[in-house]
Specification:
Layout: E1 2-9, H1 19-33, E2 40-44, E3 47-51, H2 58-65, E4 71-81, H3 84-95, E5 100-108, H4 118-132, E6 136-138, E7 145-151, E8 156-160, E9 164-165, E10 177-181, H5 187-197, E11 201-208, H6 215-232, E12 235-241, H7 243-252, H8 258-277, E13 281-283, H9 296-303, E14 311-312, H10 320-330, H11 333-336, H12 358-365, H13 370-379, E15 382-386
Parallel strand pairs: 5-6, 5-7, 10-11, 10-13, 11-12, 13-14
Antiparallel strand pairs: 1-3, 1-4, 2-3, 4-8, 4-9, 7-8, 12-15
Helix pairs in contact: 3-4, 5-6, 5-10, 7-8, 8-9, 8-13
The chain binds adenosine-5'-triphosphate and magnesium ion.
Magnesium ion is lined by residues 183, 185, 342, 344.
């Protein structure tokens, strides 16, 4: 008797001729995610299988599989020799603790080893389960539990009764790579997760205003990146100082344009980083109308500085509470609400412009030696490598 975990793909099966491409990414991502366990990952037609792991690692492996985009669902299974009495014995013990309705579903790739057909096997094993557990009742149409008996070639049979749903989506890497603007807030880690789920390999940029912002704020961002990395694999965070830009804006520009100009600075740097490191898209946690800097007018004026890179805003139509729900689910919420300043909150104006227009914004920006300041900001880059556990 041996433990195994059967993994089913997500949308990959929709991809026709490209299927091999998606499967290779997923296979590699699963192997990488389980590298710290002594486990073997193999490909079998239509799915993957994790096997030869230590039984005490099973729960941790299951937790890890729940975080890998591209996995639709998986089932912890027991693998035994194809022998009717053994199948019956293990089936009965697997179903002993359960209550409610159930059915048995048998699938035979090997039609020779047992002299019963699939229907007969299901009926006979179902009967034995019923006779040992009075809390169960058969329901063929809509059962609460399904015991699967999967009789394979090589005299191997897999038994499983539990299906655990994964993240879904597409394997990380299949949609190219993107640059996530990662603040220390609630929204941007969720935005990163959502794009990773669509197959984007992430790197992050964080803008700080050291010494106005503390090292604690930076640690918090690294902690968030670490949590995100459990979905994406290893990732890089580029730390960029916005201190000079903020000081200059503060000294020379109209107060109400502080945030608009700072955000134009961030997006200009972001596009330069995309060019430098070969990223195809900019990703942010903006949501339409959430705050003054996220009205459509603000988005237009800020996006103007990005010339050749798409800006993806996966949370654009989310309400804050929807984002919070997701942040809790993916495990970033508790860290996001730790109270450290980020660069948007230092030099905060009393009343930011809610509907900036392009001409006034350009006029304010012309009071600065903007390009030179941005070039110097690029030189402050520090590269932090975050390793996924
Ligand atoms: P978040 O919770 O993600 O901080 P928010 O609701 O506080 O979002 P803003 O502060 O306006 O909204 O930021 C909007 C988006 O701009 C963020 O989701 C993030 O993608 C990006 N951003 C803001 N501040 C920073 C920063 N210091 N470093 C990197 N990106 C940032
Ligand atoms: Mg913020």
């Amino acid at each position: 008797m041996e433990k195994a975990i059967l993994i089913r793909f997500s949308e990959i099966f929709l991809k026709g001729k490209n299927r091999g491409y998606f499967e290779r990414f997923l296979f590699q991502n699963i192997k990488t995610a389980l590298v710290n366990f002594d486990a073997e990952v193999c490909k079998i037609p239509g799915r993957y299988e994790v096997k030869n792991f230590r039984e005490e690692d099973e729960t941790k492996i299951i937790e890890r599989l729940k975080q890998i985009p591209g996995i639709f669902s998986f089932s912890p299974a027991t693998k035994i020799e194809t022998d009717f009495e053994k199948i019956s014995e293990v089936s009965v013990s697997m179903m002993r603790e359960l209550a409610g309705t159930f059915k048995v579903e048998t699938n035979r790739a090997d039609k020779h080893t047992l002299n019963l057909n699939s229907m007969q096997i299901s009926a006979e094993i179902g009967g034995r389960i019923l006779s040992t557990n009075s809390n169960l009742k058969v329901d063929i149409k809509n059962p609460k539990h399904i015991l699967h008996i999967d009789i394979r070639e090589n005299k191997e049979t897999y038994l499983y009764a539990k299906t655990i749903f994964g993240v879904g989506g597409m394997p990380v890497g299949t949609s190219g790579s993107g640059l996530l603007l990662l603040s220390g807030g609630i929204d941007s880690p969720v935005a990163g997760y959502m794009m990773a789920k669509r197959g984007v390999k992430l790197s992050c940029v964080h803008f700080h205003s050291y010494p106005y912002t503390s090292n604690m704020a930076r640690d918090k961002v690294e902690k968030l990146a670490k949590i995100i990395s459990s979905y994406t694999g290893d990732l890089t965070v580029y730390m960029i100082s916005m201190t000079e830009l903020q000081e200059q804006i503060n000294a020379h520009c109209d107060d109400s344009y502080t945030i608009t100009l700072l955000r134009r600075g961030m997006f200009t740097v972001a596009e330069k980083l995309c060019k430098k490191f070969g990223k195809k898209m900019i990703i942010t946690g903006e949501s339409l109308g959430q705050v003054a800097s996220q009205t459509i007018e603000s988005m237009i004026v800020v996006s103007e500085v990005v010339k050749n890179t798409p800006i993806l805003r996966p949370l654009v139509a989310f309400d804050k509470y929807e984002t919070i729900e997701l942040a809790k689910k993916i495990g970033t919420f508790e860290t996001s609400i730790e109270p450290f300043e980020d660069c948007c909150t230092v030099f905060l104006p009393d009343s930011p412009v809610v509907r900036p227009n392009v001409y006034d914004t350009r006029r304010e920006q012309e009071k600065l030696d903007f390009d030179a300041i941005i070039d110097r900001a690029m030189e402050t880059i520090e590269i932090v490598e975050i390793k996924a556990d």
